[in-house]
Write the structure tokens for this entry.
Amino acid sequence: MDSLINIISIAGPLIFAACIFALKNISTEMKIGLWIICALIIIFDLYLIIKDKKNKEEKSKREKLYNRLYERQELFDRNLPGTVTDALKRNPLLEKPFRSGQKYEKEYKFEKAIKVYEKCLHDLTIPEEDKIGFNILIGNCYFFLSKLNEAEKHFKESLNILKRAENKITKLPAKSTALGNIGNIYHNLGKPDEALEYYQQALEINRKLGYEQGTVHNLNNIGTLYNELGKYDEALKCQEEALEISKKFKD
């Protein structure tokens, strides 16, 4: 449908220009003026078509990246203590800005989402441990914006808070999320050794927790990394294990 509209938007002025050429009762100067107008319309239409194509490509790129960063939903799907869900329960006033941030994320308006999450992060009424999840959310948004240094900063800040947390066991899922996301950053930066280290730490935690979906995701990441490094046997081993585990929770 879009292609048809694009063809019509270009063909229309061309047909009009041809009709002008056939007219004999208007001056040459008038014809030239109308042709110039037609040319400008065509140029503007081409600009809009190219701009629309770039926007769609960018959106597609964002969607692929958004889907790839699987960990973004772990905090909410698993409803774990010490994460955003519990922070919202303890601080109902954060519910509205949090939902706004989620809405902005779905619309790929990550800068706006960051501003909303930062308000929650800097709210003096919430305890430090409740800031773990918001740091991860902000880090995710920066990751989608390809601002990897800022993303890493917030993921590591969540790990620093986790070190000071009293009940570290309940915070392990958030820790695996942060570690996995840092692994994604190093993977994108072309630092496979560092990425592998963080992926393996996340995998170890998810194995300990018995969280099979997280384990499968970590194994797939490690397998992809091994494949890129040409370590095909290790890659195959990870992928086979991931496939075997995934059969359990798909059945």
